[in-house]
């Protein structure tokens, strides 16, 4: 790809200004040096760095730089020369101030078509599996049909992505009404929108919920895009958004054999200020005894956020049938259910967790990043 580009040096070569493809990007000399996409800096097989970046001289400068239609050529004051692909540099440049990362589609109750996948196709075909994972990444959930109605029916597809995350409840666990339930999930009551297990460290990344049978009356699933709700909160009440992104709350789960605790804000931002995670679990949240004024601000902000995540305008309703499965991003999606009655029917779900790193890795590998280089190794241009 040809790109119209020019380059200039500033601050005695400590900074490089790249004007390319209508963008103006600034790069520090040290950043460019430690990212040099050549065999002297990065291992050609693994893409891992061979030099010790922390030992580069803090006074490192760029002595010369030039551009052509595809590449930036640089010579550093340590006599190292290298070449960067312009498209790779523009991809690596600092992102804008968008609320969400590129590639995500926020949605509300007007979502016309649910992201869907076929279990058999995703199990047998890499392209179908990639399409499922891309939808899961973009929308935060996907409905999978044709899952075998067996207790371990979803395990073969997990194995294509996995591994299965084990918890104190085991691997794939039952979700159905039981006597003397140790968790409200195991009762017939409705469940408010929530994220799962915020009391764990790390929090499980993806929820896999497989329906073996559903109740005759009730037991519908509800889904809310937590990022959409957070974005609405920021627009409507920025002071409440600020409170929920800065004040951490605590979450706790205990039973006869388990005592789990963790903490974090209800709305978490990443280092770029983009939405990274929502937490909401009324059943397990335990805010610390802060001063009264701070708690009053927090309670008001939490109430406004609650009204958004329970707003019918932001909620998608669906009822899973035997062989249906939901895969849900537990860092983004809030899920719940309506109350159900067992007269004339049985509601039996099986649930498991798969972590984010393995899921994202599988998507990127299938999408071709492994073939094109997970690091900058394959993004450099041979001088």
From TrEMBL:
Record InterPro entries: AlphaKG_dependent_hydroxylases, GBBH-like_N, GBBH-like_N_sf, TauD-like_sf, TauD/TfdA-like
Cofactors (names): Fe(2+); L-ascorbate
Membrane-spanning ranges: none
Signal peptide positions (record): none
TauD/TfdA-like domain sequence ranges: 116-353
Keywords attached to this entry: Dioxygenase, Iron, Metal-binding, Oxidoreductase
Catalytic reaction equation(s): N(6),N(6),N(6)-trimethyl-L-lysine + 2-oxoglutarate + O2 = (3S)-3-hydroxy-N(6),N(6),N(6)-trimethyl-L-lysine + succinate + CO2
Annotated ranges, domain Gamma-butyrobetaine hydroxylase-like N-terminal: 13-89
Record-linked Pfam families: GBBH-like_N, TauD
Domain of life the protein comes from: Bacteria
MF (Gene Ontology): dioxygenase activity
Enzyme class: oxidoreductase
Assigned EC number: 1.14.11.8
Function: Converts trimethyllysine (TML) into hydroxytrimethyllysine (HTML).
Family in the record: Belongs to the gamma-BBH/TMLD family.
The protein, known as: trimethyllysine dioxygenase
Source organism: Chromohalobacter beijerinckii
């Amino acid at each position: 790809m040809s790109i119209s580009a020019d380059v200039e040096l500033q601050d005695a070569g400590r900074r490089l200004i790249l004007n390319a493809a209508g963008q103006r990007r600034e790069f520090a000399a040290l950043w460019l040096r430690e990212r040099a996409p050549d065999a002297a800096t990065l291992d050609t097989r693994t893409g891992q760095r061979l030099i010790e970046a922390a030992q580069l001289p803090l006074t490192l400068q760029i002595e010369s730089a030039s551009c052509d239609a595809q590449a930036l050529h640089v010579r550093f004051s340590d006599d190292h020369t290298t070449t960067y692909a312009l498209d790779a540099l523009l991809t690596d440049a600092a992102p804008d101030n968008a609320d969400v990362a590129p590639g995500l589609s926020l949605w509300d109750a007007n979502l016309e078509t649910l992201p869907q996948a076929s279990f058999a196709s995703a199990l047998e075909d890499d392209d179908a599996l990639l399409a499922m994972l891309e939808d899961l990444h973009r929308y935060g959930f996907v409905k999978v049909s044709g899952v075998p109605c067996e207790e371990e029916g979803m395990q073969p597809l997990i194995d294509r992505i996995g591994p299965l995350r084990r918890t104190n409840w085991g691997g794939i666990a039952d979700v159905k009404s039981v006597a003397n339930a140790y968790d409200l999930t195991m009762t017939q009551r409705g469940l408010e929108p929530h994220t799962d297990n915020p009391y764990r460290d790390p929090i499980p990344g993806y929820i896999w919920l497989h329906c073996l049978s559903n109740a005759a009356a009730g037991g519908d699933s509800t889904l809310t895009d937590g990022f959409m709700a957070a974005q609405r909160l920021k627009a409507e009440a920025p002071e409440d958004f600020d409170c929920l992104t800065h004040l951490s709350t605590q979450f706790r789960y205990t039973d006869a054999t388990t005592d789990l605790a963790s903490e974090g804000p209800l709305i978490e931002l990443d280092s770029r200020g983009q939405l990274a995670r929502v937490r909401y679990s009324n059943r397990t949240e335990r805010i610390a005894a802060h001063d009264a004024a701070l708690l009053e601000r927090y309670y008001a902000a939490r109430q406004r956020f609650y009204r958004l995540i329970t707003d019918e305008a932001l909620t998608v309703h669906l009822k899973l049938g035997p062989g249906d499965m939901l895969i849900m991003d537990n860092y983004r999606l809030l899920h719940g259910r309506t109350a159900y009655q067992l007269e004339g029917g049985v509601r039996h779900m099986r649930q498991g967790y798969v972590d984010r790193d393995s899921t994202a890795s599988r998507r990127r590998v299938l999408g071709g990043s492994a073939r094109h280089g997970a690091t900058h190794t394959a993004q450099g241009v041979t001088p």
